[in-house]
Amino acid sequence: MTFNSLTFLVFFPICLFLYMVVPAKMRVYLLLAASIIFYMCWNPVYILLLLFCILVTYSFAIFISRAADKKQKRILMAAGLILNFSVLFVFKYFNFFGDTINRFIPGLIPSSDLLLPVGISFYTFQAVGYLIDVYRGDAPEKNIFRYSLFVSFFPQLVAGPIERSSNLLKRIRELDTKGTADIFDFRKGAFIMLYGYFMKMVIADRAAILVNTVYDPERYTEYAGFSVLLAAVLFSVQIYCDFAGYTYIAIGAARMLGITICENFNTPYLSTGIRDFWDRWHMSLTGWFRDYLYFPLGGSRKGLFRKYVNIMIVFILSGLWHGASWHFVFWGLLHGVLRVTEEVLTGITGRIREKTRRIVNAPADDISRNIFKCIVNFFVVTVCWMFFRAESIDQAFVLIKNMFTGLRPWQLTDGSLLALGLDAKEINVLFFAGLIMFVIDMAKRLGRDVSSFFAKRSELAQSFVILLGIVFIVIFGVYGKEYDAAAFIYFQF
């Protein structure tokens, strides 16, 4: 049941209506039942894995809180982590490591035909984060139903954000006593959901048509120059609109239920460097790796060399988290190298810039320089995304080579770019929709809350915007082959 499916468009209003009419003490049970139904729509059998994750982390959290000493806590903590990550390994990484070993010793490890459970990386990390928090001193949740809802809350279950117990579990505990969402939150949530659908169905799924054409594993060698460059740029747009679109739908749906979940994106393509990008992209995963891996490894407390090693470990594992393939690992490695290089150069360039500024008496915060850094950073991130999107490292290198060696000015006027799956009308729709998104991102970058601005307008103005948005999505949305809902990219992780 994807957010952009007809099933969800029936499921969510029913869930919302029941949530508003049932007694407050029944809300946890209602949302838990809805979450179980939501997940079972993917593959009913895999609900057992979700329940296993819930029961293991719930039980071990209580055991840890009752442990007599630190040694017992460490043993219980290690056991809980091993159990959870073992399941993740078997279903997501077994074939990857088996295939890698089989390259050196053919036939040593048989392959598995297990399907990857949707969202397993997300809910495993969320549950493990809770377990670590309890190990560090947080009180465990003793109500199994509340905790189960924390792990399985359907708006963010299969693609995040990866929530912390300090936020989501706290809000779940308040469901028994607080009222439903007030009209302001309800309207704000509706607008956020609508914007998420706009990003996904109008922009991401339309951009995917051209991207899939160029990245076709059977024909990618035929494309070069601006064809590859356009596909690379549009994949940057696609993955942002796809993943952020899912997040906005999740945030909006939760807000309409009176629950606030964390932000996951903050205008990442307006960032001025790799560190700034990761502070704005998939922020819940960045925060998870920072708090539960980078800091425990020592962070920056053990010298510069150890700091850079820790950064590389985090990014390599981040790449592996995204997918069980070497091109994902390489993508993570590449970002790690860029992040460390940026860290090394920042001090040097900062001193040079400060001396130059004093000589020419230039302002410390130059807008044109920041715009230039945004453009350069977007291009660097886009090239990195090519390794993420490609089927292999080799394919990515071929496309990058073709992109730089095949640039021909006449490609911009000979119509070849219109033979990649999108005609002139579709390109114009994509450009116009992208412009709307850019304006909203700029407003957010400048500290404006567009959804709150919308929620404060008159009912007539709100109705007009909602109706206009729905009509725009219905007319210009892309609905997948034979009107099947196109799955969100991050569902595979």
Notes on the protein architecture:
This protein has 493 residues and is mainly α. The protein folds into 2 domains: 6-180, no CATH class; 185-343 and 374-492, no CATH class. Helices cover 68% and strands 0% of the residues. It contains 18 helices and no strands. It has helices spanning 6-21, 27-40, 47-66, 70-104, 120-135, 144-152, 165-173, 183-214, 226-256, 274-278, 283-294, 304-322, 326-360, 367-389, 393-405, 424-445, 450-455, 459-476. Helix 6 crosses helix 7 (165-173), helix 8 packs parallel to helix 18 (459-476) and helix 9 crosses helix 15 (393-405). It starts with 5 loop residues before the first helix and ends in a 17-residue tail after the last helix. The relative contact order is 0.11. The model has no long low-confidence stretch (mean pLDDT 89).
Quote the distance from N terminus to C terminus: 16 Å
- Secondary structure: helix percent: 55-70%
* Order of SSEs: HHHHHHHHHHHHHHHHHH
* Contiguous runs where pLDDT drops below 50 for at least 5 residues: none
Number of beta strands: 0
Overall morphology: globular
What distinguishing features does this structure have?
mainly alpha, 2 domains, 493 residues
How is the secondary structure organized here?
Layout: H1 6-21, H2 27-40, H3 47-66, H4 70-104, H5 120-135, H6 144-152, H7 165-173, H8 183-214, H9 226-256, H10 274-278, H11 283-294, H12 304-322, H13 326-360, H14 367-389, H15 393-405, H16 424-445, H17 450-455, H18 459-476
Helix pairs in contact: 2-6, 3-4, 3-5, 3-6, 4-5, 6-7, 8-9, 8-16, 8-18, 9-14, 9-15, 11-12, 12-13, 13-14, 14-15
